[in-house]
Amino acid sequence: MIRLEALTKYYGEIRAVHSLTFSVARGEVFGLLGPNGAGKTTTIRMLTTLTKPTSGRAWVAGYDVVEEPLEVKRRIGIAPQHLNLDGELTARENLEFHGRLYHMPRSERRRRIEELLAFVGLEERADDLVEKFSGGMKRRLLIARALMHSPEVLFLDEPTVGLDPATRRKIWDLIRSLRGEGVTVLMTTHYIEEAEQLCDRVGIIDRGELIALDSPSQLKRRLGSFTVEVYHSGRVERRFFPTREEALEYGAEHARCDACDFSVRETNLEDVFIELTGRRIE
Amino acid sequence: MDFLVVFERELLTFRRRFWRYFFAGMVNPLLLLTAFGWGLGRGIELEGVSYLNYVVPGIIALSTMNASFTSVGVALNISRRYTKTFENYLVAPVEAHSIVLGKVLGGVLRGLLSAAIIVVLSRLYGAEVSLSAKALATILATAFLFASLGMLVGMLIWSHEDMNTFNALFITPMMFLSGTFFSLEMVPGWVAALIKLLPLTHASLCLRAAMLGREFPIASFAVLLAFGIAFFLASIIAVRRSSQ
User: Fold this and answer.
1) Angle between helices A106-119 and A91-101 (to 10 degrees)
2) Is residue A168 domain-shared with residue A238, that is, in the same domain?
3) Could you give the ipTM of this predicted complex?
4) Is A77 in the same domain as A109?
5) CB nearest B84 (choices: A73, A74, A82)
6) Chain A interface mutation, best of B2, B80, B88, highest count of A Cβ atoms under 10 Å
7) How far is the C-alpha of B126 from the C-alpha of B51, rounded, in Å?
8) Contact B93 A82 (CB under 8 A)
9) pLDDT, tens digit, 9 for 90 and up, residues B122-172
10) Is position A279 within any domain?
11) HSE, side-chain direction, 13 A CA sphere, residue B243
12) Nearest CA in chain B to A78
């Protein structure tokens, strides 16, 4: 559903995205994980026709994003990182105008609006002006709007940034329930847990380059599913092992001094990122 | 017919904020009519008519300009830079010309409201001006011209401060220079020639002729249309180029 071939974007001398190549299958939830400024949003902007690539090509739903932008636009839904809802309109009007821009017939608009307002739990605020909404409500409405015209591909740019944990879980539930509907999702995040919880496959991106791509479990397995951290006098040494036993063994052997200690836990994607780049994500 | 969706979105705010726009739109004309029509203009005649009758068409022209230009330009600047709602149009399967036409029609509407307010107010001040078909056509052309200019400037200018700079450099001087308050016959020929480069001058000339029952300057009307079409087309190109 999405295919990138050496997709590259420079802003003058500054390299935002460098030679990204990967594909996303129909119905897949794909995550781009990386720190702020890694090029995730630029990638989404190119795939959604908002920014022209410097070189390379990309296809979304079978159409070239540069050659056939209108065909791409018809088939995609976008929930950008910034909450760009129309604050002067009500939630219902936001969806209504959106549906009209995508040429949905009136009866279908009406049905879909009710359906989506229920889906994101905003039925009771349907006729309130959006400028009075909280951040979490706006984020939910933003996803509803992106889904309004039943897109084949959904782009979610940092869908839970700035939200409290409870609201974040609500958004996660929403994204999970999209899975059943066959929508292809490309999301970006700099939250490790979000990528682990939601994505079938994760592309780790740093300084505009894709440095790893696999399912979260496979990425972790390759590194070693268990992490032992050995603390000696303020320093932390991290090692990865395929089994808990091996990790425990290593820890016991290397934390022998009085001030030493060690712990064993499951490896997460942040470990993968640190191993690959030598830096933390946040 | 995508432009209708864009226009109806503007119409919705227009309806919701009508009274706010209405009363805010009265302030400037009241000040101008009082200062120039009553205060300064009492007993003065210009080009053979009372100064009040002379100045009213000019005030209509400049208020239409202000309302159309500002409502499109400032709103576009905000929706591109701050609320980013303009992006919704850019990612929707809508052609650039539909976006521009919808937005410009919204600005035309604001210009018409502003002109209507002054026509009514000026009658209360005792002005004897008539609203002919030619006058209406001029008001429409003026509103179209400056709504399109607002669209163009809103697309090209990113910082809010530069919007103010544009106002200070072009819009405000036009208000005072474009034959609104004085006759072009009163200034040296080369100054008049320069002033005639400003689009608002032609709006004032057309409107004054139409409202005072003089011979209508077709050439000036053509200049208005030409400016309007040029700004309109340039806006479409600017919207198309906005995905860089």
Assistant:
1) 130
2) no
3) 0.87
4) yes
5) A82
6) B88
7) 11
8) no
9) 988 888 888 899 999 999 999 999 999 999 999 998 888 888 899 889 998
10) no
11) 25
12) B91
